[in-house]
Design a protein that fits this description.
This protein is of the alpha+beta class. It has one domain. Helix content is about 50%, strand content about 15%. The protein has 9 helices and 9 strands. The strands form 3 sheets. A 4-stranded antiparallel sheet has the order 5-6-8-7. The radius of gyration is 26 Å and the shape is elongated.
């Protein structure tokens, strides 16, 4: 039975949870120290117990408010990262499902024709890797930032015109609109980030971690998807994020760099290679099972 709270999730969010616990403990300790100091002051000078109460409360609130705000922002960012973790887990499943269908097939694309149970893991033009990467990137569209000039400067993610038409065709199934924008426009704007190979990286392994690109029938195929989740919550993103480019210190404080911050999320899924072409054997051996566009 699949259980969403697994070891991978706990390991990925452990640093964030420890930070939240540390902030909470520090806040609790600070509150207790302030309360003890106030009680000691009232015991020694009872005449000031009522007259200085409002001023002391204002000082305490001024000291505690930044800490409480930081704690709330951290909790919000961790919740968003956990939500993205579930999406990337599904993206890894989609990529693995695509891999066990594409690898035993004969696929033609910009990089040539790849035979059955073979895949070129070292080529950027591999048609099978293109299919698998698209399967992984599509679920990640939901958690990707909409492309804009600001996002481009922060992430260096350029527009990908080749995904515009397919996303519009997909969005035609959802004619609704939100905030004056059609679903097709929203999907298209977010797809530029998700379909960028730098932001959604796919790795394929055979049994024992083999990356030769040659697979046997019924062999286990493990697919790893690493997604760069764009962090948007103030303060918390500077605590946990990695810089897209440049030095994190300058990026985190907005100095000398416009780089944004991201959290790398990695998920894996393992399925069994189907080991046979998806179409009947009477098909012409010279034909291909799939053709992948550029």
């Amino acid at each position: 039975m699949f259980w969403s709270i697994n070891g991978s999730l706990l390991r990925s969010v452990a640093p964030y949870l420890l930070t939240i616990i540390a902030l909470a403990l520090y806040g609790g300790r600070l509150m207790s120290v302030m309360a003890l100091a106030r009680m000691e002051r009232d015991r020694r000078r009872p005449e000031l117990a009522t007259s200085g109460q409002s001023g002391a409360s204002a000082v305490e609130m001024a000291l505690l408010l930044p800490l409480l705000l930081a704690l709330l922002l951290t909790i919000l960012q961790v919740a968003l990262i956990v939500q993205a973790k579930f999406v990337v887990n599904y993206a890894a499943f989609c990529a693995a499902r695509s891999a066990i269908v594409a690898i035993p097939s004969k696929v033609q694309g910009a990089g040539g024709v790849e035979g059955r149970n073979r895949i070129n893991l070292r080529s950027d033009d591999s048609p099978k890797m293109t299919m698998i990467h698209r399967a992984a990137a599509l679920p990640c569209v939901a958690i990707s930032p909409a492309w804009s000039t600001g996002v481009m400067l922060a992430t260096l993610a350029t527009q990908k015109p080749e995904v515009a038409l397919p996303m519009e065709e997909l969005a035609s199934l959802f004619p609704a609109s939100r905030d004056g924008d059609k679903i097709s426009q929203q999907l298209g704007a977010r797809a530029h980030y998700a379909f960028n190979p730098t932001n959604t990286r796919v790795e394929i392994f055979g049994e024992g971690g083999d990356q030769s690109g040659s697979f046997d029938d019924q062999e286990l195929i493990r697919v790893r998807v690493t997604y760069r989740y764009y962090l948007t919550v103030p303060f918390a993103n500077r605590l946990f994020g990695s810089s897209y480019y440049g030095i994190k210190f300058f990026s985190g404080f907005g100095l000398l760099s416009q780089s944004g911050l991201y959290a790398p999320i990695t998920e894996e899924y393992t399925l069994v290679n189907e080991g046979e072409p998806p179409f009947p054997s009477k098909q012409d051996p010279g034909e291909v099972d799939f053709k992948v566009g550029g």
